[in-house]
Amino acid sequence: MPVEPGGAASAAAGSRAFVLVVEDDLHSTRVAIATLEHAGFRCVSAANATEALDALRRERPDLILMDLNLPGLDGLQLTRWLKDDALTRDIPVLAVTAYAQEGDADLARQAGCGGYVAKPYDPARLVAEARRLLDGARETP
Amino acid sequence: MGPAKLLESGTIRSRLTAALVLLAALPVLTLLASVGVLEGMSGNAHQLEVAGGLRRSTFIVAAHTTSNAWKPAPYKRQLAEEELNRMMAALAALESGSANPRVKAVRAGQVRQRLADAQRSVEEYQATAHRLLAAANDTADATVREHAGQEAVAAAYKSLATTERLVAAIDDVSASDLRRLRWFETLAVAVALLVLWLTIWAVRRVVLGPLPALATALAAVESGRYGIQLEAGSQNEVGQLVRGFNAMSATLERAQLELAQRQADILDKNAELERSNRLKSEFVANMSHELRTPLHAIIGYTKLMRTGVYGTVPDSLHEPLAGVDETSASLLRLINDILDLAKIEAGRMEVHLEAVDVRDVVREVAELLQPLTVGKGLALAVRESVELEPVMTDRDKLRRIVLNLAGNALKFTRRGHVDIEIRTGSGAESSPRFEVAVHDTGIGIAPESQALIFEDFRQVDGSSHREYGGSGLGLSIARRLARQLKGDIVVESRVGEGSTFTVWLPVVPPTSGARLAAGRVEASPPGSAQSSTPWRESPS
Q: What is the ipTM of this complex?
């Protein structure tokens, strides 16, 4: 399993990348956090949109892992919200969903997500996508 | 009963016929009547002639009598007598007919009166003439002779006046006959004109009257406004026409109503169908989410454990962890199969056409399945017997079909080899198509089971499920997908020797395919391709 601790990107940046995991399912959250932390990221989780906004106010993440199926304001709406806000617009969003319906990837892209991973995912693929988005975000500003 | 009522009873044909017969009969009747009148007039003319003869005879008698007075002679007396007899005969003929059939007895009362007058007058004249004729002698002097001549002439004039009145009376009768004839002819013309006018009026009223309304109503029906009812009016042919129209109009209206009712029913059913279809789709999506979420956690935890994320794994746990990994992957495959089947059933599986190199897809599948051959000592090979240009098709669905067929072949083959062959062929109307044939040296399928294996959840028998595993959905899904791509899957097999499953799909060149595509013509997003292809991660 090619999940290596301490990603190259974060190593190059000199500090561990900070990821906000927005996910309502407890076990999905744990798997995501374990995967990302094992890969060298620092994580904080939020179970819904309100918690996500609170977490964003406390510390600006380098990447948001966004479950599209959240109670209340769903992941797509929350992403659009973040992309409308000048302060959060530049934070890359990686969409995650267990719906896996045709067209979900398009919806996610239209809402402003930079990547899309369907559950169940291979941990290696999640890490690869996360690194790709972080690298992209680092290059653009 | 007024004329209108009279016209409305009976058929138009019978009434028109009656009118025409009347019109034809009128001239004939007129002619017959005229002939009668003319015959009478002809009789009058003969009577006039006879009466005219009386005048002539009167003068002849007078002349002979005068001549006899001046110089008596027996022949003169004889001639006068003959003339007098002729006069009496003429009067007798006028009174009661004669041997000459053309001279008929006078009938009119006035004429008979004049005839009686004339008879008396002529008798007097005859008596005077006899007396004068008898009295004449040679010795008489000139004065006496003169006097006798004067008396004869005076008697002649007297008789003549009466005769003239008879002639005038006969002439009057003749003139009145003529007047009658003229009156009769005038009447006949008037009656003919009246009948003609009545016929025209009846035709206008009975036939032409209802027709404009009927034409208007027919135009309305033509433009789709049914149900118009006209007043039938009379019992005749036009009335029948109107009643026929009314019946047709009513039938059409009923049919239209029924049609509308049926359309409404169909719309209702469609709406219901759409609703249930939507519910089904929503159910599929929800089930997908609800089943995958916990399974995701199981698979994730297991992979993380096996990676050592939670610390070093004791040797004794390697095998059970691998078992969890394997069985959860197999459960995921089953869930995906069921959800795919549900999606196909709900009509939610869209076709995304793109230019596809079939060889790439087959090689990819072979590569993906290679790990399954390792433990069994099987050979998995790809044979490309033809050069195939890229075709327009759905890459994910094609991969899924080949994956299911080849996976199936590997599952039911314990030793030998599985070959995947790419071929070209032609179907009905020699339309070009390509084929991917999967040959195996497995257990084979009995002929009677070959049709059953494509059914949902179907395997050859219960024992094979225990022995070989799997949901029994792979072939069913593969065939549905192939048919969705306008192709199909066929199987040839011999028990104990092996099977060949062949999928054929139409060859659509990339240029025309873009136009033919029914669904969205775009490459399917990589994310969704991932999601519907669990094989991609499972064999690793």
A: 0.81
Beta-carbon-side half-sphere exposure of residue B300 (alpha carbons within 13 Å):
26
pLDDT surpasses 70 at B25:
yes
Give the residue on A whose Cα is nearest the Cα of B285: A99
Nearest residue on chain A to B310, alpha-carbon basis: A34
- Whether B175 and B56 map to the same domain: the answer is yes
Is the same domain home to B113 and B100?
A: yes
Mean pLDDT, to the nearest integer, of B468-481?
77
Interface of B with A (CB under 8 A): 285, 288-289, 292-297, 299-301, 303-304, 306-307, 309-310, 332, 348-350, 524-528, 530-532, 537, 540
β-pair partners for B439: B419, B500
pTM: 0.50
Nearest residue on chain A to B333, alpha-carbon basis: A120
Residue B422: which CATH number? 3.30.565.10
Q: What is the SS3 string spanning B118-138?
A: HHHHHHHHHHHHHHHHHHCCC
Q: Report the pLDDT value the prediction gives residue A78, as an integer from 0 to 100.
A: 92
Give me the total of CB pairs closer than 8 Å, taking one residue from chain A and one from chain B. 96
Strand B498-506 to B488-494 pairing: antiparallel
Question: In the prediction, which pLDDT does A97 show?
Answer: 85
Cα–Cα distance between B403 and B388 in angstroms, integer?
20
Q: Do B301 and A98 touch (CB under 8 A)?
A: no
pLDDT in tens, B244-300: 888 888 888 888 889 999 999 999 999 998 888 778 777 777 777 788 889 999 999
Same structural domain for residues B314 and B449?
Answer: no
